[in-house]
Amino acid sequence: MNITTVGSVCSGIEAASVAWEPLGLRFEWFSEIASFPSQVLKARYPDIENLGDMNDIPEKLKNNLISTPDLICGGTPCQAFSLAGWKNGLNDDRGNLALKFVDIVEANDTQRLKKGISPSIVFWENVEGVLTDKTNAFGCLVSSLAGLSNVIDIRKWPNAGVIYGPKRNVAWRVLDAKFFGLPQQRKRLCLLAGGTDFFPENVLFEKHINDLQEFPETKLTFEKDGHRFEVFREYTDCLYSAYGTKWNGNAAAYNGSLFIVQDERIRRLSPLECERLMGFPDNYTNIKGAKKTNRYQALGNSWAVPVVKWIGKQLINYTGDKFNLNKYNLSLSGRTYPIKNEGLFIDFGKDLVYINEDLTLNCTSIPENCIFSDMRDIVSADAQKDIYISPVGCYGIIRRKQERNLKINPRLEEVLLSISSQMTPEEIEKRSRVQKRGRFSKKIDNEADTKHNVESSDDVNKESDLMTV
């Protein structure tokens, strides 16, 4: 497929550039307003203009102030569709940026049409939560992209689907990064759209030939670079934007998947390890003046590079419609919903879908050809001292588990108890009282609650229950 130029919206730290530049795609402009990601873009891509606010892009396109690329990609803020953002969807200004993204695509295609150029290809990535957003933001997005007169209103959208519309065809599929060479369970919605002669399902869906694989078992204890490591699971839970800066109250805190034991001390992942966990080159975010919190946040908000690269390869190798899915296919009759006088919506669920004796479609989060890596490829022996968790912090996790009657990885509990035993209960109690405790704590000391903990390694006691973003 003849795609050579890209415009990137909500660029972040540019996972798309890392994934697609080696494939020969050329990025003509970025759009990012956050300070640290903008600094990363300037440091890594000094010759590519950052347009700043995406709200200004449609007007710039209409006035021919910027180029009209062959592909527009973006990941409008996911917080409006995640638990951390309270799922406000289109009631949140960040959710409305999804529709501004459509305005950019429309303005780009209008200018391309004037030049006699075919419509652009659209790639959009977001969290799974958008599929169940109570304001039907996803329905608004796909209906607008397809050019429908009315919004398709579905309470729970499928993990994979296709819409054939009067203006564009749209397809989407949820993919999990842990099957693409990263030991991180990171399920994300990937959407492709293009003109009515483009069939994006041929890029995102696959002909099912191989058995679907499971993530392999690997050793949880190993040595590397003269150090002994232990992890608590073969792959981590989803890396989130506040990782390393605030207490995380979700499952990852108690299954241990975002902790590492190094030489009998437990710690968080380092920024370098987070880069590897997302598929970025080592020290990609380690620019002049970068703080760990900046790097953690930027990485947690980014895309899994190998997943985006896989889509890029599939897109480049696209040669036309091979699946020929249409309303006359009896095997899809129970999944097909005509859109009066305008098009068709096909619900592919999240499984393998039988089409005929020669074709079964893989619409799962697992690709036909998986690539696996494990935590041995991720860990680094030169982790900073301030990401280790103190005995007080270790005991804080145990205390919280007991107060809330939570389940915990048995081995993680052993490690936490072992480290916390390095201090007496009296000393732990004394030190922990300088940190404000959560509302679930059985013991409240009003005087101590007014003080602040000066040990950043004890942040695990904070009452900031942030879910994965």
Structure description:
- The protein is 26% helix and 17% strand.
- It is built from 13 helices and 17 strands.
- The strands form three sheets. It has a ten-stranded mixed beta sheet with strand order 3-2-1-4-5-8-7-6-15-14, sandwiched between helices. It has a four-stranded antiparallel beta sheet with strand order 10-11-12-13, covered by helices on one side. Strands 9-17-16 form a three-stranded antiparallel beta sheet.
- Helix 4 packs parallel to helix 5.
- The protein is globular.
- This is DNA (cytosine-5-)-methyltransferase.
- Keywords: Endonuclease, Hydrolase, Methyltransferase, Nuclease, Restriction system, S-adenosyl-L-methionine, Transferase.
- InterPro entries: C5-MTase, C5_DNA_meth_AS, C5_MeTfrase, SAM-dependent_MTases_sf.
Q: For the largest beta sheet, what order do the strands appear in spatially?
A: 3-2-1-4-5-8-7-6-15-14
Q: What is the percentage of strand-forming residues?
A: 15-25%
Please state the second-level CATH architecture of the largest domain: 3-Layer(aba) Sandwich
Supply the number of helical segments: 13
Range of helix content: 25-40%
EC number: 2.1.1.37
Keywords: Endonuclease, Hydrolase, Methyltransferase, Nuclease, Restriction system, S-adenosyl-L-methionine, Transferase
Protein name: DNA (cytosine-5-)-methyltransferase
Family: Belongs to the class I-like SAM-binding methyltransferase superfamily. C5-methyltransferase family.
Concise summary:
By secondary structure, the protein is α+β, with helices and mostly antiparallel strands. The protein has helices at 15-20, 35-44, 57-62, 93-114, 137-146, 201-204, 252-255, 271-278, 292-300, 305-316, 391-404, 410-420, 425-432, and strands at residues 5-9, 26-30, 49-50, 71-74, 121-127, 160-164, 169-176, 187-194, 206-207, 221-224, 227-230, 259-262, 265-268, 336-339, 343-349, 352-356, 359-362.
